[in-house]
Structures are given as C-alpha cells and as structure tokens.
Design goal:
Layout lengths: L1 E4 L3 H18 L5 E5 L2 H14 L9 E5 L1 E3 L9 H13 L15 H15 L2 E2 L2 E2 L3 E3 L25 E5 L6 E5 L1 H4 L5 E5 L5 H9 L8 H8 L3 E5 L4
Parallel strand pairs: 1-11, 2-3, 2-7, 7-10, 10-11
Antiparallel strand pairs: 4-9, 5-6, 8-9
Helix pairs in contact: 1-2, 2-3
The protein binds the ligand O=C1O[C@H](COP(=O)(O)O)[C@@H](O)[C@H](O)[C@H]1O.
Amino acid sequence: MKMYYYADAKQALRSMTDQLGALISAIGEPYFNLAVSGGGTAKKMFSLWADEYRSLIDWKRVRFYWVDERCVSPKDDESNYKHAKDLFFDPLKISTEQIFRIHGESKPYEESERYSEVVRDHVPPVEKYPRFHSIILGAGDDGHTASIFPDNLSLLTAKDNYAVSHHPLSGQARITMTGPQILCRCPIFVPIFGEHKKWIIEGLVKGGEKTTYIPVQYIVRAAEDATIFTDIAI
Ligand SMILES: O=C1O[C@H](COP(=O)(O)O)[C@@H](O)[C@H](O)[C@H]1O
C-alpha cells in the first residue's frame, strides 16, 4: 500500500488524476477500462475532471464501469451514475458507447447477474476475473468500500463478480463489485478525505488483526497495488 498526503482534497484528487492520466497514456491497448465509485468523493472528482482535465486526458479511450450502484432510477439524486452524468459525461459529451452503467432501476439480483456478464464480455480476464485497467474506490464513514458494508463481510470473498448488498441503516438495495473482482490485480486508487475518516486512515497505517479489518482496510491490505490519496494528517 502506498499513501500520499496533501493539504486538501483538490490537490489529492489532482495527484490521483495525474497518475490515472499517465496510466491511460501508457497502455498499448485501444481502450482503458476504468471502474468508478459514487458518493461525495466521486462528485468532487468528476467536477475536477470536467473543470481541469477536459483536454489533459484522452477520455475517448476510456470505458466507464461502476464499482457499485444504488438500486434507484438513473434520474434519482441517489444514483451514482447520475452524478457522473451530470458532472462529467454531459459537460464533456462522453459517448454513450463508452458508458457501461449498472441498471439501478432493474430487479437487483437479475441486474447483478446481467452486469457481471457485461463486465465479463467487455473486460479481458486475468485468471478467473476480468481485469480492469484501474479501479477507483471510496471509503464510507463506516469503513465500507464499494457497497461492501461492515455487516456483510462475506462479500469480500464472494465468488461472483457483482452481488446484491443492502445499506445497513436504510436497507437500500445496492449492486456491488465483490472482493475478488476488486482484487483483480489492477492499480486501485482510494481517495479518502475529511477528519471524520481519520480513524480509517489510522487503521490503514497501523494494520492490526485481519479478523477485525473493516472492508476498506481488508481490500487495501490485500491489493497488489493500492494507493491512498488523503488530506488527513495523522
Ligand atoms: O455509498 C457509497 O459510499 C462510498 C463512499 O462515499 P463518500 O460519500 O463517503 O465519498 C462510495 O465509495 C460508494 O461508491 C458509494 O456508493
């Protein structure tokens, strides 16, 4: 695990995006398969990409997939896809052919199967799982990553690429990438911002017993190539 500290979230996201841009330029393949997350951190990231990275990255080569989605309509303010669309895809006129969204409006179990297949069809595998060129994760206030919450750690080792989960408080259904699919041997970027997430950064730095890991800690420690970008000094 690598961890880089910055004075604020914007500087951290710039550094992360510079690294992403370098990866996109470096691959000798026509498409760059990128899986993105949702939530407040992703909103900041998409705004920054639209404001500052419009012409700095060859976005035409990027295919966008999702790490997780809330089971709501794509027009709902809770939709992870909607944030990306409003803040980034629409302003940059990203072609719909590059966008592989999770259908939050469909029946959750059917959709997790359909989307697993979409990813298997488009993202070439390494061993058993499709290997994205990069995955951008987030870390929720409770230590969840993707939509793998601390009350459902079995998703960290579930066999399917994507599965259904539920938010522990609201019960909202989600579709989430599972642990083995996240750990598919690609570079993983994890932006984590705000003092309220200091306990997560502390946990990542200190380590501890595997049995007490929260989801984001489990993933970051198990990943071959995970980089944290943070504004949280410890
Ligand atoms: O629910 C979600 O939350 C996490 C973290 O979001 P943030 O608002 O704390 O930045 C996010 O990674 C995930 O994709 C999203 O569905």
